[in-house]
Design brief:
The chain is of the alpha+beta class. The protein is 19% helix and 31% strand. It has 2 domains: 356 residues, 3-Layer(aba) Sandwich (Rossmann fold); 177 residues, Galactose-binding domain-like (Jelly Rolls, Sandwich).
């Protein structure tokens, strides 16, 4: 039975059951039973935040990640309306995180605070302040091995995932939990219907738990979330981050170092920084087709958010996950921004809070609203400019191939002859894109004449090259570049595209310990003559397999093909579109350059773009070529790398 049909039956059953429960009860009892208030299709803030129940339990997981002979206990901090002690059963919004006692949560790095009895007194972020008064419980869960939970963190491994799953199981009567006195307790106050939400690692856990297929998890809201840890640390055999898995585990683990030293050593060995190849270690951390989590098991609806210029959790995490969900027929929605690693609460706050409210009301309280009738995609096309469309990539996108020419241009027709050679050395992106019409030993640049019409790229460009090397392998890089002056989101800047102000606004109710007010954030823009639109890399010996490298015979030509990071971006009329071929990216990669000479046969090479053409239904046309050199001095800041 299709998911959409099953959901319809389930929603109807819940509505009928709720009606019968009210209709069949004695009149006096029905009048006393607390209930939510709905007005204008939304739950209303009728429950006291100040008087809410604040408590914690420890849920017994199915794993023993620290190998102490006992199943790990997962700390769950709970805030819920006091009326849930008097018969009101509420759904759950859950943020599972490894960051509650180290890096903190949100733009202001909030941490949990506790009262004298050890109960939670301050919950980071606004979810509790806003949603508890509207009839929700909010759970902030310490990921296995972090803060007050037992165990050791495994950087996306099975124990990270199964700890969160155990909490969903407890909420639905399938797992044990204990209170502060060690007494077993049940989640009598909940409907069991649960949402998981979070940014970065938190959203990654939401993806992973959903991909176990656990029952009771009705929806997830992953923000800048990983779907495969290999693609977080690697790209097609090239290495983005060395020491990633053990290093991140050390960051989030605040216990004495000796406790999890052995586990961290296993992480260091398993990630295999020497090769960058895909192995069993990475397969365990693959939530698309892995043994622990597999996208084919997802039945929860998904509201994803992704920065298309996020160079930490890169947009291929979203695009591959989105495609897998589409194949499964999962109900889904997405916001795609031009920022880096930024939460929508910090770039579109009021709209975000309202949309999230509608989403949770629909999927957790079964309230009729139009959130699923709205266009599936909200897309930022420029600073603070948003449009909607029915799906992503743009349904009207068509593949268009552009081909490098011997004269340094990029055109529609294949080159008849010619080749170019560069050396795989470590260079910054600024060096690579500067002065594109001048020969440089570390790159090849091919640039179109000025575009007569705008050309929008929507999807994942692919690069196909015919190359020969003088060594067994090389890091092959391709950058898609926009040469043209424009004001853009400053995604490479210190705030990844946003600036934090000193003034605040509030969303929800407050106490003296936990207020609902946060600093306002505005878009940071930059006016520049050049923009790196997207990039992609390949270790040539991984051209046919990520697990089994195949070195190249020096002096022999090979055909190689790989995808860049996905993007949605318009090259405006009058701008020039460029393909820049290079080696090791000094801004983004921890990999070592090979020093190999890379020769590209132009006749066998192209870049294929999924394009939506504006102003013309056919292929792009170019204005008459004029003498042009391009920017001779480019400054590109390095996007800050934020774990959270």
């Amino acid at each position: 039975m299709p998911i959409s049909q099953r959901r319809g039956i389930l929603a109807s059953s819940i509505a009928i059951a709720a009606a019968l429960a009210v209709a069949g009860a004695p009149a006096a009892h029905a009048a006393k039973k607390p209930t939510i208030k709905v007005s204008g299709g939304q739950t209303q803030p009728v429950f006291s935040y100040k008087d809410a129940v604040r408590e914690y339990v420890e849920v017994q997981s199915s794993v023993d990640s620290d190998h102490d002979g006992k199943k790990d206990l997962i700390r769950v901090d709970i805030i819920r309306p006091k009326e849930s002690n008097a018969g009101l059963k509420v759904p759950v919004i859950m943020d599972e995180s490894p960051y509650y006692d180290n890096l903190g949560r949100g733009n202001e790095s909030e941490r949990k605070q506790y009262d004298a009895n050890g109960n939670p007194a301050k919950f980071p972020l606004f979810y509790d302040n806003y949603f508890v008064p509207r009839g929700y419980a909010v759970l902030e869960v310490d990921m296995d091995g972090t803060t007050k939970s037992d165990g050791c963190p495994t950087s996306g491994g099975a124990s990270d995932v199964l700890g969160g799953k155990a909490v969903i199981d407890w909420l639905n009567g399938r797992a044990k939990a204990f209170d502060a006195q060690g007494k077993q307790v049940k989640a009598f106050w909940t409907t069991g219907r649960t949402a998981m939400i979070g940014k970065s690692y938190d959203g990654t856990l939401a993806n992973a738990v959903a991909a176990t297929g656990v029952q009771g998890l009705e929806t997830i809201v992953p923000i800048s979330a990983i779907s495969s840890w290999y693609d977080y640390s690697r790209m097609n055999g090239t290495i983005w981050f060395k020491g990633e898995e053990d290093g991140l585990a050390q960051v989030v683990d605040t216990d004495p170092p000796a406790k999890c030293a052995a586990v961290q050593q296993q992480l260091a060995a398993g990630q295999d920084d020497a090769t960058g190849d895909y192995n069993a270690f990475w397969n365990e951390r693959d939530y698309r087709t892995g043994p622990v989590a597999d996208a084919s098991r997802v039945h929860a609806s998904v509201f994803a958010v992704q920065g298309l210029n996020d160079l930490n959790v890169k947009p291929n995490h979203f695009s591959t996950w989105w495609a897998a969900l589409a194949e499964r027929g999962v109900p889904r929605k997405v916001w795609l921004s031009q920022y880096g690693h930024v939460d929508p609460f910090d770039f579109r706050r009021d709209v975000w809070v309202d949309t999230l409210h509608q989403w949770f009301d629909h999927w957790l309280w079964n309230i009729g609203n139009d959130v699923m009738k709205q266009p599936r995609v909200d897309l930022e096309t420029g600073p603070d400019t948003w449009v909607t469309q029915s799906d992503w990539p743009a349904p009207t996108a068509l593949n268009l191939s552009l081909r490098p020419q011997a004269d340094g241009t990029l055109g529609l027709e294949p080159a008849k002859t010619g080749s170019g050679t560069y050396t795989d050395t470590r260079q910054t992106e600024a060096d690579v894109v500067t002065d594109p019409t001048t020969a440089k030993p570390y790159r090849l640049a091919y640039v179109t004449p000025p575009l007569k019409w705008g050309v929008r790229v929507s999807g994942t460009p692919t690069v196909s090259l015919k190359v020969k090397l003088d060594k067994p392998t090389a890091n092959l890089g391709a950058l898609l570049v926009d040469y043209g002056t424009d004001t853009r989101v400053n995604y490479l800047g210190a705030g990844s595209g946003v600036k934090t102000l000193t003034t605040e606004d509030c969303h929800g109710e407050s106490t003296a310990t936990d207020d609902a007010c946060y600093k306002k954030v505005v878009t940071d823009t930059v006016t520049s003559d050049v923009n790196v639109v997207t990039r992609g890399f390949l270790d040539a010996q991984n051209r046919t397999s990520l697990s089994h490298p195949s070195p190249l015979a020096p002096g022999r030509y090979y055909s190689v093909k790989w995808g860049t990071l996905p993007q949605d971006y318009e090259f405006k009329a009058g701008h020039r579109l460029a393909l820049v071929l290079t080696g090791t990216d000094g801004d983004l990669m921890d990999d070592d350059a090979t020093g190999a000479a890379v020769t590209v046969d132009l006749a066998g090479s192209k870049v294929t773009l999924p394009v939506v053409l504006s102003g013309t239904p056919s292929a792009p046309t170019f204005s008459a070529e004029q003498s042009w050199r391009g920017p001779t001095h480019v400054v590109l800041p390095r996007q800050p790398r934020l774990f959270y």
